[in-house]
Amino acid sequence: MSHYQLCAITARELGENPLGSASTPSALVLLALPQSRWKQFREIEHMSAEVQEVVRSLKPAPTILTLNPDPVYTRPGYVFAARLNWTDSGMHPQAFMITEANLEEAFIALLQEDWGTLSPWEVEAPERMLLVCTHGSHDSACGKLGYPIYRHLRSQASAHTQIWRACHIGGHRFAPTLLDLPEGRSWGFLDQEKAIQILKQEGPLDAVRGHLRGYMGLSPFAQILEGELFFQHGWEWTRKPRVLELQQIEGEVTSKPFQQKHPVQRAFVEISTDTHLYRGTVVYHRTGQTALNSGKVPLADIHEYHLENWSQEDL
Questions:
Q1: Among positive and negative, which fits the CA dihedral 276, 129, 93, 224?
Q2: At what angle do helices 49-57 and 103-112 cross, to 10 degrees?
Q3: Around Cβ 86, how many Cβ atoms within 10 Å?
Q4: Cα–Cα distance for residue pair 172/192, rounded to 1 Å
């Protein structure tokens, strides 16, 4: 069976739940550059020999995301750049305005966390950044569905929140997709109302069930428990320090467990905050189908999981 429509429309029609699909970067490096230069910094075969050597030496390497330049957020003649590393309560951002002449040197320093080299260009990091994927050349769903959400968010955002157009951030079948930084939470299947609720972090969380892709500081199965705790505790949960751990899995796991040949049957997850320990069991439900890309493509198998139970203990 093939579908000609946008993959995100097909995935919604087939009832795919995005929870657990958030990417899991070890760190993020952001660069605001014209799209014609994105490959030079995102795709290793297009990087200079020196940058290639550095990227290959890093284990794990940070995830590189490119942004469309924005004259409101960037000084003329400079490139906005940032690195975000994980903490217990989200990601810690450090931001820079880099001169074009020093861009490759600074990019290498960002990859290697060479803060001494970067110090002349450091600026105050944005309080909050929402990255909306509008990368239509990667998949048409992101361009057609993502750009209107970007424009709507941009018209409603406060001075403390920057709204950026971003390159492919993964999961285009969940378009429109959004990353909320520095919290590190990923969203999909957005419409204007849900996007504004996420921007303002207010209103009943049940209204955004079915839109949460997950907390990027966790592996996919742990994202499912963390997502339920988020819905139970409300927006305040996003500000709680927490330690997250996947305790045990029945079966081997690849980097894409929802698409691997043999589904994992059960995963045990523990999450602790400064006051509570949470335990949950995520179980295999069934294998359905989805469209991984837009256009005339065959549907692909996708494993579905749900949270069977969870418990809470005082610490």
A1: positive
A2: 10
A3: 16
A4: 18
Q: Do 27 and 62 meet the contact criterion of CB atoms below 8 Å apart?
A: yes
Q: Are 185 and 212 in contact (CB under 8 A)?
A: yes
Residue 41 exposure: Cα atoms within 13 Å on the Cβ side:
27
- Which one-letter amino acid corresponds to residue 214? G
Q: How far apart are CA 194 and CA 211, in angstroms?
A: 8
Cis peptide upstream of residue 182 (ω within 30 degrees of 0): yes
CA distances from 303 to 243, 248, 268, 272, 288 (A): 27, 19, 17, 27, 6
pLDDT of 2: 43
What token pair was written down for 83? Answer: 């690195």
For residue 26, the surrounding DSSP H or E stretch is none
Q: How far is CA 197 from CA 202, 262, 301, in A?
A: 6, 37, 32
Task: Look up the pTM and report it.
Answer: 0.93
List alpha helices for the chain, DSSP H: 7-13, 38-42, 49-57, 103-112, 115-118, 140-141, 147-156, 192-200, 220-233
Phi, psi of 294 (to 5 degrees): -80, 160
pLDDT in tens, 211-259: 999 999 988 999 999 999 999 999 988 877 777 666 667 777 887 899 9
The span from the CA of 114 to the CA of 122, in Å, is: 12
CA 151 to the chain's CA centroid: 19
Distance CA 151, CA 132 (A): 10
Sheet holding 300-314, edge to edge: 242-250, 266-273, 276-290, 300-314
Q: Per residue, what are the HEC states of 277-305?
A: EEEEEEEEEEEEEECCCCCCEECEEEEEE
